[in-house]
Amino acid sequence: MTGLRERRERTLGPYAPLFYDRPLELVGGDGVWLTDVAGGRYLDAYNNVPHVGHAHPRVVEAIARQAATLNLHTRYLNDRVVDYAERLLATFDAPLDRVVFTNSGSESNDLALRIAAQHTSSEGVLVSDFSYHGHTRALAAATTGLRTREGLGPHVRTLRVPDLDGADRGHDEATVLAVALDEARAAIDSLRQEGHGLSALLFDSLFSTEGLNRVPAGYVAGLAALVRGAGGLVVGDEVQSGFGRTGTAFWGYQNHGVVPDLVTMGKPMGNGHPVGGVALSAALLDEFGPRNMYFNTFGGNPVSAAAGLAVLDVLRDEDLVERARATGVVVRRGLERLVAAHERLGPVKGTGLFFGVEILDRPRNDPRARPDPASTRRVVEALRARHVLVSRIGREDSVLKMRPPMPFGPREAELLLDELAEILDARPFGRCPLRSGA
Ligand SMILES: Cc1ncc(COP(=O)(O)O)c(C=O)c1O
Hints:
Elements lengths: L2 H10 L13 E5 L2 E4 L4 E4 L12 H13 L9 H11 L8 E5 L2 H16 L4 E4 L8 H4 L15 E4 L13 H21 L6 E5 L14 H11 L3 E5 L24 E4 L10 E5 L1 H7 L13 H16 L2 H22 L3 E7 L2 E6 L13 H13 L2 E2 L1 E3 L5 E4 L7 H16 L13
Parallel strand pairs: 3-13, 5-6, 5-7, 7-8, 8-9
Antiparallel strand pairs: 1-2, 2-3, 4-10, 9-10, 11-12, 12-15, 14-15
Helix pairs in contact: 2-9, 3-9, 6-7, 10-12
The chain binds pyridoxal-5'-phosphate.
The site of pyridoxal-5'-phosphate has 14 residues, from α4.
């Protein structure tokens, strides 16, 4: 154990998670590259918080300039904050024309659930059966993708999210859709029967913690219609899928043809500066506002607003959403080549700059094939040894998770793919070789 790790455990305790068998001590970042304490360079194919690139000079300068001018809480008029609200709201669809600023994704989801509960006079919440939306008490009671002592609240029902490349592979899409919507109907009925009613559906449009499920066309729209039909509100958690990550839209919900009643934001918003927010309609805010004095000391302070504005500027000026789309095509093609060559890889998942590939314990056509988290872990560690950073997601932690900063381009994509190919070609990665016929 290094001195720093010991000191960390003595102060932060041993429970704050660290990546990798040999945790990395990173001291610098620029663009899609990171530098460790020994001067080693790492290709960052994992981090979505430095959305427009590590230490982007325009974001750094905007933060520094505003911090050197004025920073304080949110009870004074400030043009920076209003400029940001206007610019951000211009990216949303009607009727989302108001924003409440927060400091994190958790705060945003907590507030969205509170607004929904007051609007509906109900407590019932629908989430997927393997998801994560934050760390507050209300969200811990709805957390299914991480260990929490609270357990599920009696007012929470979980939905099995279909996956046409996973559990539902080979089944007729229309049938998969009908079954999934029937399950949602039953969950709503059970909330009603037990007196909770329906307050909100909270979902991540990429189903990222779940493992990047490929859902049937119309699934999210169908869920939204059921929820609204039962008097509930739809909360789109865009902490992972927002700000152009999917390459095909600025907001993940746009890929599903549904405009949520509330959209929650966090991670990429301030490029690492803690910024979050909830977008909603004036009608919803006008209902919540007069009944609650919602005051957030740091949420929407001038420095946060400067960071958020700079992120929007860079996204526009460097055309990063289009770049994510284009690079995404290169990565997908490369991963598909790898899948064709390695029969223990599952189908390529994801879109834009959020990718996954599942590693299985047997050839994918073998009906006994199961997720192989141990092999996935070895691949993640092997990539780290080659100075490429990725991670794992999914119910079994068996899906390679690749989600780089948005400036990740075709050159970096080739680097990632080459390193991955060499690792997959090498033995041993489990009970049978990863390469077909090897
Ligand atoms: C989809 C989603 N929502 C919400 C959160 C919580 O955000 P934060 O850690 O900023 O509170 C996360 C964090 O990983 C997330 O992935």
